[in-house]
Write a structure and sequence with these properties.
With about 280 residues, the protein is an all-alpha fold. Helices cover about 70% and strands about 0% of the residues.
Length: about 280
């Protein structure tokens, strides 16, 4: 295992930590519309994540920073190619943070209702968006020779990506109901425990559909191995699909159009001599 693979594992661990810890935050926020039938119940739900929600978001900041430091090309390809989905996730996360922080600043039912809507929006959109993003990374997206994603936004909304978004959304909902059941008592706890079984069944159905889609894709690739296919971005990071050995020596880039020394068909010494003669002239 070389240093690039070690960093790849570190980035993966950081993102997994973010989804595990922030997952129940998203789940609790999404449950505002299900379990939070009164203002008191919504306050109880918010109190369950009050001490930890902001600390859980540090994981994604660290993960993105590690990606930028270790794999700048992967970082550039990912954040440029998925600019609009990531922007939507970022904006809704900011709205969610402001709503959580400012909900209790004004003693007005209308104000709190608007903040509750913002919390739900800032939970539903990232929960679905992260799953759609990961599904596209695993499934693969079209990348040109400059390592730029050529697929548009609507091309990323294929069935496998939508299944990925639905999977993370339901997983975070299940995570949130389990967390609420552990942290509360009385009617709120009973209602949360009642939701667990239905969500578990729905997740199993979604996972079965996703597995069927993946098997269908593998069968198509097996029938036509020479067909052009998209690049999973994780392979771009490690350089496998683009035949880049990041740990090996860097080969010089030749561009005969700008008169680089040692161009095609000539020895290095001849190229130096020609450059010196051109400078003298």
């Amino acid at each position: 295992m070389n240093i690039h693979e070690v960093w790849f594992v570190i980035v993966a661990v950081l993102f997994v930590g973010y989804f595990v810890l922030e997952g129940f935050d998203f789940g609790v926020g999404m449950l505002f519309g299900v379990l939070g039938r009164t203002d008191t119940r919504r306050r109880v739900l918010l109190n369950t994540i009050g001490p930890v929600w902001d600390g859980n978001e540090v994981w994604v900041i660290t993960a993105v920073g590690a990606m930028f430091a270790a794999f700048p090309e992967w970082y550039a390809t990912l954040f440029a190619g998925f600019y609009l989905p990531l922007l939507a996730i970022l904006v809704t996360l900011i709205v969610r943070v402001c709503a959580i922080e400012w909900r209790g600043k004004i003693d007005d039912p209308t104000w709190r209702r608007r903040c509750d809507i913002a919390i739900m929006l800032g939970s539903w959109v990232p929960a679905f968006g992260w799953g759609m993003l990961i599904a596209n990374i695993v499934h693969g997206v079209a990348i040109n020779a400059d390592k730029q994603v050529t697929a548009g936004l609507f091309a990323m909304l294929h069935p496998y990506a939508l299944l990925g978004g639905a999977t993370t959304l339901l997983l975070f909902l299940l995570h949130g109901t389990v967390f609420v059941a552990l942290k509360t008592a009385g009617e709120v706890r009973d209602d949360a425990a009642f939701q667990d079984i239905g969500l578990a069944v729905e997740i199993l159905v979604i996972l079965a559909l996703g597995d069927h889609r993946a098997d269908a894709g593998l069968r198509v690739e097996a029938r036509d191995p020479g067909a052009a296919r998209a690049h999973p971005l994780g392979q771009v990071a490690l350089g496998h699909d683009l035949q880049l050995d990041l740990a090996g020596p860097v080969e010089p880039v030749e561009d005969p159009g700008v008169g680089v020394v040692g161009g095609p068909g000539e020895a290095e010494g001849d190229g130096v001599l020609q450059a010196e003669q051109a400078a003298a002239d």
